[in-house]
Amino acid sequence: MEKNGALSNEELYEKISGSIDIKIENFVILICAIFIASIGLNVNSQPILIGAMLISPLMAPVQGVGLGLGVFDSRLTARAMRLLLLEAGFAVVTALIYFWLSPLTYASSEILARTEPTVWDAIIAILGGTAGMIGARQREANNIVPGVAIATALMPPLCVMGYGIYTRDWSIFLGAGYLFLVNVAFITITTFLVVRLLRLNYRTQVDTKMEHRRHYLMIALAVFIAIPSLISAGDLIHTEMSQQRAKRFVTEAMADYYVLDQTVDTGSQTLKLDLLGIKPANDELTRLQAELSDYNLGNYRLTINQVANNETVNLQDIDRYIDQKLKDKGREQAAPHSTDSKEPLQEIKKQLFLDHPDKIKKIELQRADEETGAPDKINVTLAATVDTESEQEIRAGLERLLAEQELTAVMNFRK
Question: What is the dihedral of CA 204, 210, 212, 213, to 10 degrees?
Fold first, then answer.
């Protein structure tokens, strides 16, 4: 019976149950999808991963398990579970072979992103499972099921498990395996609930006690699987909040310093800053440490690392350093300290630090004020040990850099 283009309950059952037969064609498609996804993970490309997820055949057995549980069809459940385990194992082995052959062995951000599942992944799986069953009921072809395949991302975690086996990094293997389990479990549970809401006929005689027992079992399974993801989500939120606070601390409290990178370690409660130029003196470090409490980071220990000197680092090295840090952390926007890295005064500031790394403590830029007509100002704070001759050398170097950029600015030097 056709109603608004939707399949009848019996047609829906036949459609899903008929899609979980073991077919050579599906395994060929699976191999293609696994290799594509592994390449996407290897070269850190989201578009390639999306392409792999679109052609992945993994959604069918997951929906089959949910349908079999929902209609008490133990034979269908066993068939779907067997196909799911077979395809998942096949996918892991195929990914292992790919990474064994690949010359690229580093853990890209796309790989690492699939090792720490949170409750958000469970929520996505629930919503995706609901949308997937709605799409499966449609008589006409639609893009709902492919969209669910992308959103729930069943394929990439299996590839990451293969990578974890190849590198013998069991934390990566277990993290990706848990993400796959979360996705499969909550799509299955959601499919089960939708099947019951649609009131598909049971395939065997079921009494009320048996029905309730299965419902309680599904609830217990959902809670048990979700607990680690809830803990992980709490850790993720805590880390993100600490990152934002540290970012504000660097922007405000350390505005006069050239901070190349910041790293927040919530485990050891350490804020590590990579600094270009001379390190702050002990009394300055004490003051900065005390200011952390103003940013709700009072329990954190501030450590500063001087990363550059004029013998080992040049301007191009710093640009590459910043780009690499941003790429490694998967940031889409430049950090505050590098926002204006190509602006002339910022380039001059950077070069002056490089030319005199052990003599300059701070360089502060004050932009020209169009309303008052005040010019650009460059305030240079020198180390206490800098003598008059060295100060004149630094002043001459700054004048030369300004002349090369055809700029004028008021120069103020102090200790």
Answer: -120
